[in-house]
Every structure is written in C-alpha cells, then in structure tokens.
Amino acid sequence: MDKNDYKELETLLGLTWRKRSGEIDQNMVDHSLKSGKYIRLGDIFIGVCSRKPSITTTIWYDDTTDGPDPNWQNFLHLNVRNNMPKFYELESRYCGRISPLYIRVSYWNDKTGGRIASLEYIPDDDKREGIIRKATQDDLNLINAAVQDVRDDYRKRLEAYFKRYGKDHVSSRGYWVDR
Fold it and tell me: DSSP assignment of 19-55, as one string?
C-alpha cells in the first residue's frame, strides 16, 4: 500500500474504533495497522492475515516416546505448521461441503460502508449478513501475493530468532499423553 492508501485505511479504522465518549480509539487503530496485513481491492481494504505471526519455542511431544531435538529443522517445522499464514483457495472442502471464498464486512458495527473487509469460506446456502461478494481469481492472486510477503518475512524472522536465541530459548518438553 502506498501512503495515500495507508492514510485512507487509518481514517476508516478511526470510524470503526471509537471509545464510549465517541472519540477515536487511536490505540486500536494503531494496533490494527501494525498487526494486520491489508491489501486494497478497488474501494475495499481486506485484512488478509497477521503481519507478524507468533513464534512458538516449545516443541511438545508424547513423553512415552523419545522427544525431538530442539534443532532448526524441528523448530522451523513446528512454526510452519502452527503459525505460518496459509494460502487461500477459491473454494474450501470441509465435511463434504464446498464453500467458496467470500469477501465480507469485517466488523459487525461497520461504520465504513463495507470498506474494511475480511475473507471467509461460506457455503452458498448460508445467508449471512455483510457479504460483499465472492472472491475472483484476480482477487485471489493479489491476496496470496500478500500472504507470500508475510510468509517470506516470517521465515526470515524465524531464522534470525533461531540464530540469536536457539540454544537458550527453543526446547522440547514431554507431556502426559495417556495418564
């Protein structure tokens, strides 16, 4: 996003995040801008994923087995599996149902006219409020490009974290699985 898009998104978030007194809750606006990865699609800003996914440092295992070493490969696998943002598809298959990817209004108390949106897989027969439209292949390409940016940054963060703290902060711990 360029500076103008960023300022516009900040203004829209200011309409959404208000204190009881009616003034802008700048802490929530700043938090939303800092923590969320947004893209612009036409007149809509879509929150795609978290900008900085968390880093998990404990590898849990069944204590009746030999535990994994807290090495780089296991640390990377754990964080990719648990925290790495996933790519979107046009449809999701879950429990025998096919649900298309929809762009829908993010906040139930939306004051932006539907200009801040999120992504959700919704079955076609579900009549939820706030649905803007189905995502297209062009939308999906832009969305997944933003996800890829976050994934690349996250991989670099993991490498830097493990290089700096690996031996001291990454551990594997057993848990009682059957007792």
Answer: -TTSSB-HHHHHHHHHHEEEEEETTEEEEEEESS---
Is residue 44 within 8 Å of 131, Cβ to Cβ?
Answer: no
Q: Which helix (H) or strand (E) holds 11?
A: helix 3-16
Mean pLDDT for 29-39 is 96
The values of phi and psi at residue 29, to 5°, are -60, -50
Q: What confidence score (pLDDT) does residue 70 get?
A: 93
Q: Would you state the structure tokens that stand for residue 126, as one six-digit string?
A: 């579900």
**Tokens read off for 89:** 């598809």
- C-alpha to C-alpha distance for 112 and 61, rounded to whole angstroms: 46
Residue 6's Cβ-count burial label (10 Å; 0-12, 13-18, 19+) is middle
pTM of full prediction above 0.85: yes
DSSP helix/strand/coil, 144? helix
Q: Give the CB-side neighbour count of residue 139, counting CA atoms within 13 A.
A: 23
Mean of all residue pLDDT scores within the chain: 93
- Longest CA–CA span in the chain (Å) reads 58
List Cβ neighbours of 166 (8 Å cut-off, separation of 6 or more): 70, 72, 75
Tell me how many degrees the CA angle 135-138-140 measures, rounded to the nearest 5: 55
Q: Which of 31, 35, 1 is nearest to 16 (CA)?
A: 31
Cα 43–Cα 49–Cα 50 angle in degrees, nearest 5: 120
